[in-house]
Specification:
Number of domains: 2
Pfam families: Response_reg, Trans_reg_C
CATH architecture of the largest domain: 3-Layer(aba) Sandwich
Strand order of the largest sheet: 2-1-3-4-5
CATH class of the largest domain: Alpha Beta
Protein name: Response regulator
InterPro entries: CheY-like_superfamily (IPR011006), OmpR/PhoB-type_DNA-bd (IPR001867), Sig_transdc_resp-reg_C-effctor (IPR016032), Sig_transdc_resp-reg_receiver (IPR001789), WalR-like (IPR039420), WH-like_DNA-bd_sf (IPR036388)
Strand content: 15-25%
CATH topology of the largest domain: Rossmann fold
Keywords: DNA-binding, Phosphoprotein, Transcription, Transcription regulation, Two-component regulatory system
Distance between the termini: 25 Å
GO molecular function, one term: phosphorelay response regulator activity
Radius of gyration: 18 Å
């Protein structure tokens, strides 16, 4: 999952960034409204965590612009604006949820998970295929009921494929799930993580589609 964090407060931004990455999310962090609009115009995100009191462009303007382009990306507003009128304005502008600073990090993460599940149309956030099960809510993976420890990036590679058996993912698509803008990407990173997943979960779980990418086959 790739998230956009829009937060101008350095201390809050660093804390939230660490918490999100610890939960295996790839995160791009921008610090003003204009940069947020540029990011949303040039990349695809699974969720936006949006402050409202931003330099250069207010968060509500960013949100209204996003919805005006008919983008359905889930947006969680996280702001110090705690008046009822502010909450109403944020929700009416197109926010999917609204949390007031200072917020509890665990609650923030739970709200993020809930929005991602809702956007995917899943009431029960569990993927299961060929004996392999991933539970994004608990970050647990099992093979035939036995727990398996996956690294954050192994999880990021596997989750989209296990969620859509039969869909072919290119290396570039999987790299998007792995890295934010400022991260260095090695030329064989995806291959390394796929190799590790095959060793842990079974050699036949992920197939290589020559010239196209990787797939978890339906059969």
């Amino acid at each position: 999952m790739r998230l956009l964090l829009v937060e101008d407060d350095t201390m809050i931004g660093e804390a939230v960034l660490d918490a999100l990455r610890a939960e295996h999310y790839a995160v791009d962090w921008v610090r003003d409204g204009a940069m947020a609009e540029t990011a949303l115009a040039t990349a695809s995100y699974d969720l936006v965590l949006l402050d409202l009191g931003l330099p250069r462009r207010d968060g509500l303007e960013v949100l209204r612009g996003l919805r005006a382009r008919r983008l359905t990306t889930p947006v969680l507003v996280a702001t110090a604006r705690d008046a009822v009128g502010d909450r109403i304005a944020g929700l009416d502008a197109g926010a999917d949820d609204y949390v007031v600073k200072p917020y509890d990090t665990d609650e923030l993460l739970a709200r993020i998970r809930a929005l991602i599940r809702r956007s995917a149309g899943r009431g029960e956030p569990v993927y299961s295929h060929k004996g392999v099960t991933l539970d994004p809510a608990t970050r647990e993976a099992t093979v035939h009921g036995e727990p398996v420890k996956l690294s954050a990036r192994e999880w990021a590679v596997l989750e989209p494929m296990l969620a859509r058996p039969g869909a072919v993912f290119s290396r570039a698509q999987l790299e998007e799930k792995l890295y934010g803008w400022k991260d260095d990407v090695s030329s064989n990173a995806v291959e390394v993580y796929v190799h590790g997943l095959r060793k842990k979960l079974g050699a036949d779980l992920i197939e290589t589609v020559r010239g196209l990418g990787y797939v978890v086959p339906r059969r």
